[in-house]
Design goal:
With about 170 residues, the chain is α/β, with parallel strands linked by helices. The chain has 4 helices and 8 strands, in the order ββαβαββαβββα. The protein has an 8-stranded mixed beta sheet with strand order 1-2-8-7-3-6-5-4.
Length: about 170
Amino acid sequence: MRVGDDATVTLPIADEVALGDFARRLMAVLPPAAFIALYGDLGAGKTTLVKCAAAVVGIDPTEVVSPTFGLIHHHTAGQGIDSGATTRIVHADMYRLSGIDDLAETGWDDAVVGASHVFVEWPERIADALPADRIDLAIAIDSPTARTLTLIGRGPRHAEAVAALANQ
């Protein structure tokens, strides 16, 4: 499973309930300042996954909406999964960007500083700006409810998290 500093796991997800269970397991193993690049077609469930992850750390999932027009949304919970610490999730959607030249105008650098977890939809639009240490999470649509998740942990911190998911 390990190649260098990378780790890969593929997981079947039967439905939204199973996605919520996966989000609980993911959030439990993520390193501090985790970065998750979300790949998948429209309707694959990228925002739904972020809603589930937000719920795990005490953020109202109804507050999590697609950031397609706002580009970057910030969500904060006073009670995190690690003994009451504040958790800040940054949820970004780069679909409307044509490349990294547009990134500076979004306030990206300021947005990600100090974030507990950064989730980025359409990361391929800013590929050259992605951190080397991250999780690439691809969501494939198998049926109206079922998905297949493929996670690649890049760099030692995120590879360790993906390896932990594979061993659960």
